[in-house]
Amino acid sequence: MLEHNESARLVGDGARALFENAGGIGRARQRREHPVLDRAVWDEMAALGWFGMLVPEADGGCGFTMTDTIELLEAMGAALAPEPVPLTLAAVSAIAALNSDEARALRNRIMAGHDIPFIAPLVELSVQCDRLSGRTGTHADLHLANTFLIGAQLDNESMLLAAAPGVAGFTIATVRTVDGGSAGHLLFDDVNITALRVLARGSAAETVLRDAADIARLCRAAILVGLMDRVLAITVDYLKTRVQFGVPIGSFQAVQHRAASAHVDVASSRSLVREAVRAVGTARQTRAAAAAKAYVSNAAMRVTHEAIQLHGAIGFTDEHDIGLYHRRAMALVAADGGVAAARRVWAEAHERAEI
Known about the structure:
Helices cover about 55% and strands about 15% of the residues. With about 350 residues, it is α+β, with helices and mostly antiparallel strands.
């Protein structure tokens, strides 16, 4: 059995090697023209066991913890990897708790890379004579999924439903996002409810949806930390080589102060994410994940904005790598409803905890 630090380091090393061999940041630039899933990379991720990292070994997973995944997620942020790993980890770890043959089969297909899940938070849908209508909120990366898990409130009962493309009346509306990905919502127009699979009901469904939302929020916060860290490293290298008035601009005290502030943002964000990871599985889980996502989102926007300024604004262009990092940060920040949504989740969880 590997010690935690060693297993996390090996996961991180493997992730960085995979992304570098796959094309590095060049894949992010290509994505803006071809926003499709890189199937070869996805299959390699599945072969490495990434999608089963949070599933117990007895159930065919790796039996890792969220702490072990941090290196992987930060590597994704540094490489601007576009794969929907946060949603996949969130979905597979959440449904791993369900004790049904159908849930186990779905979990195994996701771990093998065959099913690419999207899991939506609880939404109220109307039902009349077994016909379902309504829409989910707006979410990221819908266009990459082929299995849709929806939390629905039907007749005062929470349900976790599974839907696949091809169900009559079930459609996906998407728009392109600033980083070359997509966002959109799921539409149910008089869908026969028997065409959907019910994976869980009542409190079991609510627990799965809550845990999935917490894990997804935490994964995206960790990716933003890796993104910020890489942006700062690129910027510091630039400050050492860009010469003005005969000296590197990094020698100016005002510039050093701005770089130091960015470093504080990266370091404090990393610490907060690790603290939130330690809260997974405890009563603090939802509040810690929401706090991490809110704080890191603000920090990521400050760091990427500062990087553009310190590059003399050339970083705002598509041609410069800093511009790609900035746009990816914007998409990740907005993916869970933005900072306001994270703060609302924290406040609601805090209120429940005090009751």
